[in-house]
Amino acid sequence: MTETIKKEYPDWVKRLLEDQTHGDRTIIINLKNDKICSGCNKATNHKKFKDELSYKESLISGLCQTCQNKIWN
After folding, report:
1. pLDDT tens for the 73 residues of the chain, in order
2. Pair 48, 65: CB distance under 8 Å
3. Do 25 and 18 form a contact (C-beta atoms < 8 A)?
């Protein structure tokens, strides 16, 4: 059996996403569908993530690799 690792977003990240979307998750979904980062509003290239975990995070949050690096590093 594999262990699932859950990483909780820091509060400031939650507030940032809440502020950007006004609580409307469909905004992030639309940005992801259009391949636009929900953090910086730049075009994202889903082939340029550093690893599988970063790619999966992008599917959840809509953040590009650069924005993820700013948050997690």
Report:
1. 444 444 566 676 667 666 666 666 677 777 777 888 888 889 988 778 999 999 888 888 888 999 999 988 7
2. yes
3. no
Report DSSP letters for 13-67, one per residue: HHHHHHHHHTT-HHHHHHHHHTTB-TTT--B--TT--SSHHHHHHHHHH---HHH
Among residues 5, 4, 11, 6, the alpha carbon closest in space to that of 71 is found at 11
Please tell me what DSSP assigns to residue 12: H
